[in-house]
Amino acid sequence: MKSAAKVVVVPDHTLSFAERMERLSKKRSELIRPVQERPRDYVLLSIRDVAAKLGTDPATVLRTVRGLGFESYREFKAYLHQLSIASATSLDGMQAVSKPNSSLLSQGARALDQDLQNLQALRNTLDMNRIVAIARRVYAARKILVLGGDLAASLAEYLEYNLTLLGFTVVAGITPGKTINAVRSFDRHDLVFAISFRRGLRQTVEGMKQARANGAYCVGITDSFVSPICRFSDECLLASIESHLGTSYAAPMSLFNVMLTICAHYREARTMKTLKKLDQEQRHGYRWYPV
Q1: What pLDDT score does 245 carry?
Q2: Statement: the pTM of the whole predicted model exceeds 0.90
Q3: Domain map of the chain by residue range?
Q4: Tell me: the pLDDT tens digits for 44-71?
Q5: Beta-strand pair 191-195/217-222
Q6: What is the second-level CATH architecture of the domain 17-86?
Q7: Which residues contact 287 (CB under 8 A, 6 or more apart)?
Q8: CA distances for 87 relative to 41, 104, 133, 204, angstroms
Q9: 62-101 residue pLDDT tens
C-alpha cells in the first residue's frame, strides 16, 4: 500500500506585510508594527521573546500571526527571515561582520566565503528545467525587455548585451523614462526580465506590473520571495546578493551565465551561425587594441 503523499502548505506571498496588517484590528496592527519596521530584531527570537519585547503574551502574538495569514509561528518566522533579507541595508551588512581586532585579511576572506555561500545556495536550489522553459520563451518572444535600475542596471545591460549577441531583439530599461516608454509597446507576444533586489526599485516594479498588465510574460530576478518583484511576476528566480557591504552580484551573474548558456545551446545550429558572423569582427575589428 502506497503511503499518502506529504502535503506542503505554501503561504500566500502575493501580499505585502502592510497588506497583511490591514486584516488586523487597529490594536493588533499597532502591536505588530515594530516587527514590520525592524524584522532583523525579531527574526531569531522565540515566540516568548517576541511577546516580551512587544510587551504582550505569547497567545496574543500567535493570534496576531494567524490574523496575518500564517498557520503557525514557525511559518511566520520563515517569512520574517525573508523580510529581513528584503529590508537589509548596507549598514546592516557592515555591522553584522564588524568585529574588534579583526584583520583586513580575515575580512577579505569572509567576503569571498560569503560569495561562495551565495553560489552554493544557487547551485542547490536552481531548477534547470525552469531555465530551459525560460529559454523556450526567449526564442518564442517577438522582442525582449530587460528592466533594472540603480546598481542592477549593470546586470540589465549585461543580459541585454549577451542576448543581443545571440541574435535576439532586446531593449534595456535602466532609467525611469526609458522604462515607462519601453513597456508601452510590450504585450502578449513579448518577454520581460525584471531585475531588482531587496525591497525592489520602484521603476522596475512598476514597469514590470505595466508590462504584465499589457499581457507580456514577466520573469523576475530577485533575492527573496517577499520582494515585490516575486509577488508581481509570472515566475521568479532567486539569487542571493548577501554581502558584507550590502550587495554582491556573484550569484545573479552566475544565474545569467547558466541562462545564456542554455539559450545558446537550445538551438545550437542557429547560435553557431550567428556567432560565425561575429567571428571576424571579434578577431580583427577596429575596436580591439592589437596585442
Answers
A1: 76
A2: no
A3: 17-86, 124-278
A4: 899 999 999 999 999 999 999 999 999 9
A5: parallel
A6: Orthogonal Bundle (1.10)
A7: none
A8: 12, 27, 31, 17
A9: 999 999 999 999 999 988 888 888 777 777 777 776 677 7
